[in-house]
């Protein structure tokens, strides 16, 4: 066992290694440090089993060293605190950090011996758990490699299967549960994440949520992952995979589908996996988790948008109630059963709805509608393959139509914005506040403002503030801090930094240069 002794008292550092029978207690090597910095260097470079550390030191406390160690040192270290402080808060914090013991100076030999022996027991336990963890990880890697080999070479029977089973120490009579996990739809908000990166993210989320479970995972980095669970998993994977789906939707705005197969022998894996692939190719209702019975639906019901829904959608479109229309679409399409909505029928439904909407438009509006269609499908040709794709398509479609209608907005809007900025220069103006004043969405206002003026709203506000500040610096005797307040900067240093970033000079330097 290797022990690190840390104390800023060099007398203790020099005397303590020879004052106790460390070897009799199982300590084979003692390293010493008289500062936190020196201790960190040793901990980074060597594997230490036990840390015996003082609390109060000039360049940091022992508590701080332990907190750092728990973040930065990968191998677990058993910690003991040796100090002349008996205050309860020290002991309490030490216990919170998982310290093995808290000893007061000067420590009695028997007391120190007991603490060291207890710490050694913990080290042995840590090592045992680490060995078990590595063994388990190796088993997981072996099963991953086993299934990767079967899938890569299409091995499902005969001598080849027997050899692969022997190589990876897998029983040929193995029974397993296959699950196919796919990213069905990307939101336009994160479409710049490539499939390889998305697959990597998805694998890490699955491994985190399924931590401790037995399964194999095959990732081909094409946003399609295979999971193979044992016949009797310790936990039903349905709920954990539902968590994965919810997490990916919330954090990466993508729709995930999970297809459960039936429990099979190894010889049936290829046929079962092909069935799951076919389900993924046909099912359009997503995100979803599909059971083996749902996957086995081979006779899809013909889908036709009911006349009552068609009339409802058409009426809301004509009235320009796009928010309500989109909600009605969500309610209807997300309630469909998988067998009611395959990719072919969904594509047909979109085409028919677009025709109905276009029929309600005037001639010039029809042309703009078609241009929006072309642009959206150019950005993402897969909009018609999933319900989330359909809903995103119409969400963006309606947003573009509304924007088109606002393009003829009178120039007075821009003038109102400029007037509002000039009248509220002393405030910390933001584009959300300005947009609220004229009753527009901040993103939309920013687009039309930049189109008309050549600069963004944020840049215009900054330029206006600088221009006003320059005029006040040159034409008045107000203090720099007072001028900063007049253009919305209560903090002197913030105003100085802002002004220098825009002009290259501090306010004082600018005043001096322009008053000559």
UniProtKB/TrEMBL annotation:
<feature type="modified residue" description="4-aspartylphosphate">
    <location>
        <position position="54"/>
    </location>
</feature>
<keyword id="KW-0804">Transcription</keyword>
<feature type="domain" description="Response regulatory">
    <location>
        <begin position="2"/>
        <end position="120"/>
    </location>
</feature>
<comment type="function">
    <text>May play the central regulatory role in sporulation. It may be an element of the effector pathway responsible for the activation of sporulation genes in response to nutritional stress. Spo0A may act in concert with spo0H (a sigma factor) to control the expression of some genes that are critical to the sporulation process.</text>
</comment>
<keyword id="KW-0597">Phosphoprotein</keyword>
<protein>
    <recommendedName>
        <fullName>Stage 0 sporulation protein A homolog</fullName>
    </recommendedName>
</protein>
<dbReference type="Pfam" id="PF12833">
    <property type="entry name" value="HTH_18"/>
</dbReference>
<keyword id="KW-0805">Transcription regulation</keyword>
<dbReference type="Pfam" id="PF00072">
    <property type="entry name" value="Response_reg"/>
</dbReference>
<feature type="domain" description="HTH araC/xylS-type">
    <location>
        <begin position="415"/>
        <end position="513"/>
    </location>
</feature>
<dbReference type="InterPro" id="IPR001789">
    <property type="entry name" value="Sig_transdc_resp-reg_receiver"/>
</dbReference>
<keyword id="KW-0238">DNA-binding</keyword>
<dbReference type="InterPro" id="IPR011006">
    <property type="entry name" value="CheY-like_superfamily"/>
</dbReference>
<dbReference type="InterPro" id="IPR018060">
    <property type="entry name" value="HTH_AraC"/>
</dbReference>
<dbReference type="InterPro" id="IPR018062">
    <property type="entry name" value="HTH_AraC-typ_CS"/>
</dbReference>
<dbReference type="InterPro" id="IPR009057">
    <property type="entry name" value="Homeodomain-like_sf"/>
</dbReference>
């Amino acid at each position: 066992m290797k022990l690190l002794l840390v104390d800023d008292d060099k007398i203790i550092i020099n005397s303590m290694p020879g004052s106790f029978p460390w070897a009799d207690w199982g300590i084979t090597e003692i390293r010493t440090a008289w500062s936190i910095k020196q201790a960190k260097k040793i901990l980074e470079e060597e594997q230490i089993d036990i840390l015996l550390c003082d609390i109060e030191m000039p360049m940091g406390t022992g508590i701080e060293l332990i907190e750092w160690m728990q973040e930065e040192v990968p191998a677990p270290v058993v910690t003991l605190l040796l100090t002349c402080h008996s205050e309860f808060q020290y002991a309490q914090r030490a216990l919170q950090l998982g310290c093995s013991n808290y000893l007061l100076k000067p420590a009695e030999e028997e007391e120190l011996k007991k603490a060291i022996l207890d710490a050694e027991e913990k080290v042995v336990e840590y090592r045992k758990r680490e060995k078990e963890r590595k063994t388990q990880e190796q088993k997981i890697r072996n099963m991953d490699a086993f299934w990767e080999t079967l899938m890569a070479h299409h091995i499902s029977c005969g001598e080849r299967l027997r050899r692969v089973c022997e190589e990876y120490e897998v029983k040929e009579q193995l029974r397993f549960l296959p699950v196919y996990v796919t990213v069905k739809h990307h939101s336009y908000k994160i479409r710049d994440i490539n499939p390889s990166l998305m697959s990597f993210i998805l694998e890490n989320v699955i491994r985190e949520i399924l931590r401790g479970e037995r399964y194999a995972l095959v990732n081909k980095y094409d946003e399609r992952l295979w999971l193979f669970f044992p016949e009797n998993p310790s936990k039903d994977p349905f709920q954990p995979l539902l968590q994965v789906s919810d997490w990916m939707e919330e954090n990466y705005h993508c729709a995930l589908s999970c297809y459960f197969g039936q429990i099979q022998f190894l010889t049936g894996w290829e046929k079962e996996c092909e069935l799951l692939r076919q389900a993924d190719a046909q099912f359009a209702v997503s995100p979803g988790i599909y059971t083996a019975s749902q996957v086995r639906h081979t006779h899809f019901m013909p889908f036709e948008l009911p006349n009552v829904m068609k009339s409802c959608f058409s009426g809301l479109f004509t009235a320009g109630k796009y928010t309500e229309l989109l909600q009605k679409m969500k309610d209807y399409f997300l309630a469909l059963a998988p067998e009611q909505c395959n990719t072919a029928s969904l594509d047909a439904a979109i085409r028919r709805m677009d025709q109905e909407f276009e029929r309600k438009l005037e001639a010039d509006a029809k042309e703009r509608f078609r241009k929006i269609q072309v642009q959206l499908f150019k950005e993402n040709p897969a909009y018609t393959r999933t319900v989330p794709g359909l809903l995103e398509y119409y969400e963006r479609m309606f947003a573009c139509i509304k924007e088109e209608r606002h393009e003829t907005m009178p120039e007075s809007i821009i003038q109102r914005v400029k007037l509002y900025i000039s009248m509220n220069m002393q405030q910390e103006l933001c584009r959300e506040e300005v947009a609220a004043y004229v009753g527009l969405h901040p993103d939309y206002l920013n687009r039309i403002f930049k189109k008309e003026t050549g600069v963004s709203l944020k840049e215009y506000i900054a330029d206006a503030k600088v221009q006003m500040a320059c005029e006040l610096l040159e034409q008045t005797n107000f203090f720099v801090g007072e001028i900063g307040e007049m253009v919305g900067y209560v903090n002197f240093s913030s105003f100085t930094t802002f002004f220098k970033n825009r002009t290259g000079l501090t306010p004082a330097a600018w005043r001096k240069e322009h008053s000559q």
